[in-house]
UniProtKB/TrEMBL annotation:
It comes from Characodon lateralis. This is Trifunctional enzyme subunit beta, mitochondrial. Its EC number is 2.3.1.155, 2.3.1.16. Its main location: mitochondrion. Belongs to the thiolase-like superfamily. Thiolase family. It catalyses: hexanoyl-CoA + acetyl-CoA = 3-oxooctanoyl-CoA + CoA; tetradecanoyl-CoA + acetyl-CoA = 3-oxohexadecanoyl-CoA + CoA; decanoyl-CoA + acetyl-CoA = 3-oxododecanoyl-CoA + CoA; dodecanoyl-CoA + acetyl-CoA = 3-oxotetradecanoyl-CoA + CoA. Pathway: Lipid metabolism; fatty acid beta-oxidation. The keyword Magnesium does not apply. Keywords: Acyltransferase, Fatty acid metabolism, Lipid metabolism, Mitochondrion, Transferase. Mitochondrial trifunctional enzyme catalyzes the last three of the four reactions of the mitochondrial beta-oxidation pathway. The mitochondrial beta-oxidation pathway is the major energy-producing process in tissues and is performed through four consecutive reactions breaking down fatty acids into acetyl-CoA. Among the enzymes involved in this pathway, the trifunctional enzyme exhibits specificity for long-chain fatty acids.
Amino acid sequence: MEQMAKLKPAFIKPHGTVTAANSSFLTDGASAVLIMSEEKALAMGFKPKAYLRDFVYVSQDPKDQLLLGPTYATPTVLQRAGLSLSDIDVFEFHEAFAGQIMANLKAMDSDWFAQTYMGRKSKVGTPPLDKFNLWGGSLSLGHPFGATGCRLVTTVAHRLKKEGGQYGLVAACAAGGQGHAMVIEAYPQ
């Protein structure tokens, strides 16, 4: 703890709180995902891992809401998929920084934020932590640019299979105030 306390802020110096100790570290990585219809996959001899039910991309003001993409994208993708937060069995959110995850969880649990910034009547709701990033997230596993999204999606597919769930939600922030979310459904075994 003493060593981490000595780390310098990465952004707003000297008072910032984001340091190397609470940021996802960049790692090497590569990824490939085949996305195709179930019929095509079966015809080619592949066994699907999951269905991609819906996805959204969002953007918001990078000045005040730079890393809040998951907060904005989650209710939209759930509505489009005809689901609610309580229908989701597995959550995998990209963790750019510990503070970014905490800010998203707080914003998702705030009626004030939903009404003031999102034009919603009530809060999104907070994902249950006993379903959230259970196999480790970007803070513990690293953040290979260009591969993190695939890692999140495949983690959801594998968790759904292992945990016997039906629906998973992937969400991430992105540079410039962007974000995305997607609903993944388990493939019948």
